[in-house]
């Protein structure tokens, strides 16, 4: 298989995965507060599962606990800097801000996923394809997570779809670097996974969960969060 074909597979895995999640925006118009609170809760649960049962365990396994913990701290700090910058721009509007922050966090996450695809193909075509399929499945709920707040913030479905596609592009860059390197350092890959985990934790705990509770004060967001965690466990464990 040529390097160009490998690059296209890596790009498709990231862009199609998050992009399909973005299609959700077409069906998410003028929701009532109770429904929206539940969706936000599910989104938060999915993100927590991806971080706690996928990103961080892999980071700790391949680069060690100290590197992983440092990566989480740095990732949370970096996204807080983005957050401070967004507060000073025209995009400082509740849901839009959340969507942008989560998009940045997921883009950071997609880069090391691309490294995994490229490095996998350097070992064997079957391994590379298996990794690409798993990544595409994992990226779907992340695309939903970006699409939901942007759509609720008034961004048009077409633009939401475009933004979710863009969050998948770093997968292509990571795949390209993985091909060139023939296998990036485990420490580097683990650090990137932890950086993405820290960024996603910041957005989920600091933005999405409080927003879900503010939208509707009932228990629907809590139930949604539990369902999201269960769904995330199933995705990370069996897909």
UniProtKB/TrEMBL annotation:
Example of a GO MF term: zinc ion transmembrane transporter activity
Record-linked Pfam families: Zip (PF02535)
UniProt subcellular location: Cell membrane
Q: How does it sit in the membrane?
A: Multi-pass membrane protein
**InterPro entries this protein is in?**
ZIP
Principal subcellular localisation of the protein: membrane
The UniProt keyword set, sorted, is: Cell membrane, Membrane, Transmembrane, Transmembrane helix, Zinc
Segments passing through the bilayer: 6-28, 35-56, 62-82, 94-111, 160-182, 188-208, 220-238
Q: Does the keyword Cell membrane apply?
A: yes
Q: Which GO terms describe its cellular component?
A: plasma membrane
Q: Please report which protein family the annotation says this sequence is part of.
A: Belongs to the ZIP transporter (TC 2.A.5) family.
- Descriptive protein name: Predicted divalent heavy-metal cations transporter
């Amino acid at each position: 298989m040529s390097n160009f074909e490998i690059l296209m597979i890596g790009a498709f895995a990231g862009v199609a995965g998050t992009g399909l999640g973005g299609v959700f925006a077409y069906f998410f118009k003028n929701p009532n507060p109770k429904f929206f609170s539940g969706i936000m809760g599910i989104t938060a649960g999915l993100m927590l599962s991806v971080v706690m049962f996928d990103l961080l365990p892999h980071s700790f396994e391949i680069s060690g606990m100290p590197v992983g913990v440092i990566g989480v701290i740095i990732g949370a700090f970096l996204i807080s800097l983005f957050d401070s910058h967004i507060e000073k721009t025209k995009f400082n509007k509740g849901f839009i801000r959340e969507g942008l922050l989560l998009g940045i966090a997921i883009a950071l996450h997609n880069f090391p996923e691309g490294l995994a695809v490229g490095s996998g193909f350097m070992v064997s075509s079957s391994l590379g394809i298996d990794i690409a399929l798993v990544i595409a499945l994992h990226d779907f709920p992340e695309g939903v997570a970006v699409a939901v707040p942007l759509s609720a913030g008034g961004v048009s479905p077409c633009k939401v779809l475009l933004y979710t596609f863009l969050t998948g592009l770093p997968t292509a860059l990571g795949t390209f670097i993985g091909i060139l390197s023939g296998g990036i350092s485990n420490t580097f890959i683990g650090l990137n996974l932890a950086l993405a985990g820290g960024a996603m934790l910041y957005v989920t705990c600091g933005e999405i969960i409080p927003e879900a509770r503010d939208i509707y004060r009932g228990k629907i967001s809590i139930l949604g969060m539990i369902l999201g965690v269960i769904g995330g466990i199933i995705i990370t464990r069996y897909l």
